[in-house]
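can u do me a favor
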């Protein structure tokens, strides 16, 4: 079993720490950061976690492959957690700050995946295509 790879990033403006974790064992790696996962949640492909009291946010992804659909889905949860913890209102008439924060989270996840040489997979219909590093 591989060990987890992770990146810790300080969140600008809103403060707090954002961990991006690539893991084979979500339960073990979540526990290492003080989280207890509910039964069955460790078997998913990605998960977003938060500790409101510590302003700690974690996006965990399967160690074997990173998919944009999973990153986008979990990034929405991370942004919601950050904004909720800081009392930031979200509305359809006032969403530019949300779009920028979502962009920041997604960019950081893919930069971490690239820096750690993780396999990035794009789904096209039922086919999976691996992006190649240059």
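np, heres the sequence
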């Amino acid at each position: 079993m591989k060990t987890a790879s992770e990146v810790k990033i300080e969140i600008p403006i809103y403060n707090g720490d954002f961990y991006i974790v690539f893991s084979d064992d979500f339960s073990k790696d979540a526990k290492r950061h003080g989280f207890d996962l509910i039964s069955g949640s460790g078997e998913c492909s990605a998960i977003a976690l938060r500790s409101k009291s510590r302003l700690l946010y974690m996006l965990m992804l399967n160690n074997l492959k990173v998919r944009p659909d999973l990153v986008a889905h979990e990034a929405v949860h991370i942004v919601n957690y950050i904004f909720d913890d800081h009392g930031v209102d979200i509305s359809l008439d006032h969403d530019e700050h949300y779009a920028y924060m979502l962009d920041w989270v997604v960019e950081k996840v893919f930069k971490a995946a690239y820096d750690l040489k993780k396999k990035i997979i794009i789904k096209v219909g039922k086919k999976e295509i691996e992006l190649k590093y240059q």
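The CA atoms of residues 29 and 60 lie 9 Å apart. hope that helps!!
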